Amino acid sequence: MVTARTTPVVFGVLxxxxxxxxxxxxxxxxxxxxxxxxxxxxxxxxxxxxxMRHLADLTAKRQPRxxxxxxxxxxxxxxxxxxxxxxxxxxxxxxxxxxxxxxVLEGKEEDWVGKQVVVKGWIRTIRAQKKLAFLEINDGxxxxxxxxxxxxxxxxxxxxxxxxxIADASTGASVAVLGTVVKSPAKGQSLEIQxxxxxxxxxxxxxxxxxxxxxxxxxxxxxxxxHLRARTNTFAAVARVRSSAAQGIHRYFDELKFKHLHSPxxxxxxxxxxxxxxxxxxxxxxxxxxxxxxxxPYKVDFFEKPAFLTVSGQLSAETYxxxxxxxxxxxxxxxxxxxxxxxxxxxxWMIEPEMAFADIYDAMSNxxxxxxxxxxxxxxxxxxxLQFFGKFYEKTLKDRYELITSKPFKRIEYTEAVKxxxxxxxxxxxxxxxxxxxxxxxxxxxHERWICEKWADGAATFVYNYPRDIKAFYMRDNxxxxxxxxxxxxVPGVGELAGGSQRxxxxxxxxxxxxxxxxxxxxxxxxxxxxxxxxxPHAGYGVGFERLVCYLxxxxxxxxxxxxxxxxxxxxx
Length: 573
What we know:
Elements: H1 7-32, H2 34-45, H3 50-62, H4 65-93, H5 101-106, H6 109-112, E1 116-128, E2 132-138, E3 146-151, H7 158-168, E4 174-183, E5 191-202, H8 219-223, H9 233-255, E6 259-260, E7 266-267, E8 279-280, E9 307-309, H10 314-324, E10 327-334, E11 347-356, H11 360-381, H12 383-392, H13 397-406, E12 410-413, H14 414-427, H15 445-455, E13 461-467, E14 483-491, E15 495-502, H16 507-516, H17 525-532, E16 538-544, H18 545-553
């Protein structure tokens, strides 16, 4: 029996029932709608990207607020599923997105603990126990590796999968690891991966003959396997420092509004006038074309004139500096110099800036800033690598960086440097390989190192205003008639790192110098045109990139700071 007091209650129940019926009716239509069926198909088929977002937006516009809330929840679950699918696809297909070791090691601990990741790399070490396997995975992104722990109890596939992992995994093998980042109880690391699955992508065939067993190898031996040496701590660290230094240099010039110029590799000009160049020809040396001795034999060659691999991009850079202002080149150069020293290569990289409306002092200041920028970039991004080099290769490396980044470089004129050297050599000439030093002497490495290591107390040092007779034709003559506005940058452990000058912008003086250096002016007609049409004072320099990397790492030989060294008798790989 319904009384007056129960009427409101019954009425409320009826209203609620009707509201719920309306809601489920609407929701049923929603589930039957073409848009949500399409969205469901997207979920089932694993389709992602713009189509999924478009369908979700379309659904949200068509449905009432209550349904849109359900749609948003569905979208959130799709986003999670999407990331899970990406991760699983990445793990199973050996390609796709992955987490790099450096991201985990350098990230905040709270951002990574509990997160599922796929890491791919090479096994540095592996320790196997009855139910556990400890793998150090390194993908080259950092000096340190990341430990992955595979447990028989938690690994997908159980005992069979675990046993296969132990059988296939070894030092040098490539793997994909799917697991969760957890705090590590081990010393020396804060995080590790608890493996859900480990897949050996590439096994090491004949493991006993793998050249990179866990022991120290000589640098000479590693040069003989240059295709594998980047897997060692030393050469992986060199590669990271080299990359970081290059980035620092590009950033430095970009901030100063320099333009990056790609100068030609093949040239008909000898920038240095030394004649030590690699010839480029398509002529068959075993059967050279027969021609009239009075005719030019190169007329039948590809370029119809003598052509060479460039020794410098400087002359090309000068042409652009005299048009668009400050420019720089960064590329390979070649010298056919039969030298087996630790400072010379047949193929090496040069950084060569050219600045319009500049003199020798502007060039020295720019050079100092560039070296400092490269050092700061390496210091800020390669801390573990530098610690390694400081421990095994150069004990004073930390002090070297302190001097580079915080102290101004020193400067001394060549004439004064020769005077100081003569006084020092006179104390005990027997200690010197080249005790004879006079004005006009081309300073040897031992002289250069004494200047920066002893006289300058380890600071990088500019020696400038060199005798004109020992420098290139394009360097500007000073008013004294004996010297040119040229400089070398000397650094500890290396000696000469950079060389530069103010360029000779006076057309008449340059013409005379070309004759003096036995160079054919017609070959440099375009270079003379720069002086003929709107000449300006300009200056520049060149830095041997391999020598810079030696300076930044403490490595003693340029053959060990370039991926595949080229030198007399060696062009392997």
